[in-house]
Amino acid sequence: YQTSSFYLTGERLPTSSFYSILDSVTNETIIPFDTSATQIDCDANGSFFKLRMDSFMPERYYKIMLKIERGSDDIQTFDDYYFKVVK
User: Fold this and answer.
1) What torsion do the CA atoms of 33, 34, 38, 39 make, to the nearest 10 degrees?
2) Bridge partners of 48?
3) Helix (H, G, I), strand (E, B) or coil at 9
4) pLDDT tens digits, residue range 41-71?
5) Which end of the chain, C or N, has fewer beta carbons within 10 A?
6) DSSP label at 20?
7) What is the maximum alpha-carbon separation in the chain?
8) Environment class of 47 (CB within 10 Å of its CB; exposed 0-12, middle 13-18, buried 19+)
9) pTM of the predicted structure, to 2 decimals
């Protein structure tokens, strides 16, 4: 039993988390993983990254791939996040 909503708690990824953007149709990497340019930030509300949308083609789907490094031998990747650029 809980007295508050689970969704009010901001979750944060480890500081060694990175993102990559892929074209969802061709699976071509648009923005590759980079240890400085694609590092995921966090604040009091949770983890986030900023992305300039003007460089993407409109009316196309893209996939966000996350890489989370918890150690040299503990690396996880997730690729089930999609978004569509609209006009």
Assistant:
1) 110
2) 41
3) coil
4) 998 888 999 999 988 999 999 999 999 998 8
5) N
6) E
7) 46
8) middle
9) 0.81
7 exposure class (CB count in 10 Å sphere: 0-12, 13-18, 19+): exposed
Q: How far is CA 60 from the centre of its chain?
A: 18
Counting every residue written for the chain, the total comes to 87
Helix (H) or strand (E) holding 28: none
User: Tens digit of pLDDT for each residue in 24-43?
Assistant: 999 999 999 998 899 999 98
Among 51, 52, 54, 63, which residue's Cα sits nearest to residue 87?
54
